[in-house]
Amino acid sequence: MSKATRQPPSVRIMATSFLVIWLIVAAFPFLWTLWGSFKVEGDFFSKANWANAIFGTLTQEETGSSFTGAGYYGAWVQEEFWRAALNTTLVCIFVVTVSLTCGTLGGYALARSTHRYAFWFLLFALMFRAMPPITLVSGYLLPFFEWNLWGHLYTTVIVLVALNQPFTLWMLHSFFKNIPKDLDESAMVDGCTRFQAFRHVIIPVMWPGVITTGLFSFLLAYNDFAVTTMLLSKENQTMVPKIASFLGTTQTKGNVMFAVSAVVSVTAPLFVMVMFFQRQIVSGLTAGAVKG
Amino acid sequence: MKHSSFFWFVLPSTLLMLAFIAFPIVSVVTQSFYTAHEQVVVQVENCGPFGCTQETSVDQEATAALREAEPMGEFAGFEIYTDRNHLAFGEVAAAWVNADGLPDFGRSLMNLPFYKALAFTLTYTAVVTPLTIILGFFIAIAVNSVARAMKGPTIFFSLLPMIVTPLVGSLILFWMVDARGILGAGLQWLTDDPNLSVKASTGLMWIMLMVYGVWHAAPFAFVVFYAGLQTVNTDTLESAMVDGATRWERIRFVVLPHLFPLVTFVALIQLMDNFRVFEPIVSFQASAHATSLSYAIYNDLGGETRLLSSAAATSVLTIIGIAILLSPVLVRTWRDFDRK
Amino acid sequence: MNIILKTTAAACALIAAASAATAECSIDGGRVNIIGNEFPAIQTVAAAAAECTGVTVEANLTADHQTLNVAGMSGNPAEYTSAIVANSSIVALINEDVIRPLDELVAEYGKDIPQRQLITVGGKVMAVAFMANAQTLTYRADVLEEVGLDVPTTYEEVLVAAEAIRAAGIMENPVGGPYAAGWNLAQEFNNMYLGHGGEFFEPGTAKISINNEKGVATLEMMKALTEYMNPDYLTHDSNGTSAEWEAGNVALMHMWGSRAQVLMDDEGSEPQVYENTKVAAPLMVGDSGVPASTLWWDGWTVAKNISDEDAAATFQALAYAVSPQTLNDTTMNQAVWLIDGYEPAPVSEGVLAAVASGTKPYPMLPYMGLLHTASGDNIADFLTGKESAEQTLADIEAAYNAAAKEQGYIQ
């Protein structure tokens, strides 16, 4: 660590305690859910006493032990949650790839163009994003049913990519602006075309931005409810609408715990993913090519 | 950059946005200027398991003819925009004339659905946006200074409010803030008021929605700033240090200017998202205490009879609202752009 | 639940279901695709339809059915060949002209369907009902016994009982009901207003007529009840209220008949609660003689924009699904079935009493949904004390008028 980032002890203690408080605030509901997912619904959503969720009074009474895996069994085996997990994996992979491909190309061009239309392009993209998604999605239904596009995974992928394109463009455009112009311009002086300069000079140094944008595209596809619940048929359902169907409008007893267990069990792979990509963000830094 | 290469670089994004956003927006705007035909209603006798009743029904043949003649419906101009459920020009004018001082006028205004929704939407946006940015910035600085081995887990836990699907996340939080949930009981203990209930009071409900908003969005600001911090030039920092700059001055004059484009970006996105606040209101069943413009659209589309034109008009008003809200940031971006 | 059951899968399911295996539903070709809500009774009907051989039966049972059904039945051919609806939601399909009259199909394939199951609009059969529902009183027998009171039959008696229970220190907030702002709250208003003998509209027109003394009395009674409810009542939908009940915090509750079974089973609550949970007839209010509740049916329809072959297949599959063989030990208590062979259980006493006592059905009017939404948005302001009852009724009227004008029902 360089001298400039070394901190005096007082600052260090303040920063650490701030971080610890934040981590507790951020993680507490999840940890509570993790613990509660092994209880029965009457305990986890106890209206009598919140401590029931910790000690599992009703769980003891109904199952004979303080912990039960019934929620997990119900979600994964009985309700075949793995199908939804598979669909989500497909949707996420395609949304992230397509989104980043279109977005890096567009974002790069927008960051480098000095013409005014580039600004107007960004402005319109932003205004497109202002449209409330519920209005858009309910507008899609009629034509999608008419043209037989409704219910398929690819339709949802394209819609999610399109709806998220303004965000992706803006974000990548901001990151590209941080990459000095001299890099690709000198490459072009050396005889590269614009695309070759982009491909060989810019792509290698833009990983932190791309990974971060990709992370958001991923989370969007992963967590989306408004689009997936309206546009996917039952057999193509992704995880979030599937979880919503566990909850239902008239909560059938026990099914709520399926939803809770499903949420807990799909968070584990994300942990691995974040651990992996945070290194990529840092490796972009150590490559040392980015100068502010 | 040459026009032709710009064109090819942005083509894929443009096509997607035109087809799935621009075109629907055009049709939504058109829709907002039309109302349904005058309905031909006839008296009918309806029978079922509970006996027969005299009721009314829409005469399909007569309606079919009307639909044939004007497929879009009746042109209404700005009628929907100005009716009571939207801008309510007539009611606002009447309230102004009849008002007994400004507070009374305010009360009459808050009784109109659009202005009631707007009041909460604007308050929410004004409170949540800056808090999210500040909190995200401090988390980013703090995470950036932890030991390398701990970085992965800290990032993951910091992201949790964003990762856990709001569907279940808010269900659990909704239970937690219940008067008998762990947070609700904790609040009662803290304030020493056994009858305190967050869900029963408008003020507390607003605060809760805003706290949830900051909690849910802070990870976004954090990740963007964190990625930005990775590209801060350490040479500049060190030379600032040699020049005798204090820690605060280094943040103020080196780190912040570097992050500024990202702050603009986060502010734009957050202003927009907060102005469209919707999910927490539904999840926390807060509509008795707080409504927003997006909630109004949801309400129009979710009823047994869907009010398409009304929803379209509110959507257009939302876009206009966001355009006004973003204009200062956009003017700034425009100046930056011109300088290039 | 994922119900795309191909014929082979259906055959397997049949063997597994053993008791229902006397099925004889074979259709010569066609397509069946059902859209509907996702509660257990509808799941049962869709699963039974999937037992038919010779056709592919698909179903999309989701909470968003109301948004999807009109769009999914508008195309030609329509994606969905049938929508499962209730008396409130069928009007949207009739308004958009996407369902077909069933008279010919009933004559050809549906002779066994009892007359009471046929829903006719202006003499044409538009739907076939299979279950009934209503909101009635649910009470805790032990608590009423403790305070020495009979089961209340009117809302006035509910207030007396609630005061007695509170005074005896048994429960702080003994009254419950789905009073969540929005649809639920508006439904409670509808019930209470009908109970006061009110009419929602001037007969034969779309002119709203709730702004009167009956409307004021309705709101006053609702407010009086909320004094005995958990302070969070505006966030309690039927799920939330049921949870309160199971926690033993409530002794008198206005609840849907379809929920009674869940409250009476031994999951989620202490024995003292579920053993003493009983249902009674819907409550009266004032002196109108009309119960303060509404009757509901759920039934299926057939899409208009599909081939006659598909329509015939859909009709046959669903007629089979709501025939007596669908009822067995597991499905019997899922709902108050209108199907022949249904044996009432204690859980369904409330709904049957509602039918017997002359409760009005929820109005099947094209503009009723607009009023329902308008009420749901405005009543909370009165209950929280922000405005007077007259102001609230005037607001409902104004909100309804703006919406009805947009939809072309009034000028």
Automatic annotation (TrEMBL), chain A:
Query: What topology does it adopt in the membrane?
Result: Multi-pass membrane protein
ABC transmembrane type-1 domain residues? 85-275
What Gene3D superfamilies does UniProt report for this protein, alphabetically?
Answer: MetI-like
Q: Record keywords: Cell membrane included?
A: yes
Could you tell me the keywords of this UniProt record? Cell membrane, Membrane, Transmembrane, Transmembrane helix, Transport
- On whether Cell membrane is a keyword of this UniProt record, the answer is yes
PROSITE patterns in the record, alphabetically? Answer: ABC_TM1
Q: Signal peptide: which range, if any?
A: none
One GO BP annotation of this record: transmembrane transport
The terms describing its cellular component in GO are:
plasma membrane
Main location (coarse class): membrane
Q: Which residues cross the membrane?
A: 12-35, 84-110, 117-141, 153-176, 197-222, 256-277
Q: Where in the cell is it found?
A: Cell membrane
Belongs to which family?
A: Belongs to the binding-protein-dependent transport system permease family.
Q: What is this protein called?
A: Maltose/maltodextrin ABC transporter, permease protein MalG
| Protein species of origin | Litoreibacter arenae DSM 19593
UniProtKB/TrEMBL annotation, chain B:
- What does the UniProt keyword field contain? Cell membrane, Membrane, Transmembrane, Transmembrane helix, Transport
What do the Gene Ontology cellular component annotations say?
plasma membrane
User: Which InterPro entries does the annotation name?
Assistant: ABC_transporter_permease, MetI-like, MetI-like_sf
The record's principal subcellular location, in a coarse class, is membrane
Q: What is this protein called?
A: Binding-protein-dependent transport system inner membrane component
Question: Topology with regard to the membrane?
Answer: Multi-pass membrane protein
Ranges for domain ABC transmembrane type-1 come to: 118-326
Kindly list the residue ranges recorded as spanning the membrane: 7-26, 117-143, 155-177, 204-229, 250-272, 307-331
Tell me its family: Belongs to the binding-protein-dependent transport system permease family.
Which BP terms from GO are recorded?
A: transmembrane transport
Against Gene3D superfamilies, the record matches this protein to: MetI-like
**Cellular compartment(s):** Cell membrane
Specify the domain of life of the species encoding this protein: Bacteria
Cell membrane as a keyword of this entry, yes or no, is: yes
From TrEMBL, chain C:
Q: Which keywords has UniProt assigned to this entry?
A: Signal
**Where is this protein found?**
Periplasm
What Pfam family is a match, any one?
SBP_bac_1
- Cellular component terms per the entry's GO annotation: periplasmic space
Fetch the InterPro entries from UniProt: Bact_solute-bd_prot1, SBP
Family stated for the protein in its record:
Belongs to the bacterial solute-binding protein 1 family.
PANTHER family (alphabetical): ARABINOSE-BINDING PROTEIN-RELATED, DIACETYLCHITOBIOSE BINDING PROTEIN DASA
Protein's UniProt name: Various polyols ABC transporter, periplasmic substrate-binding protein
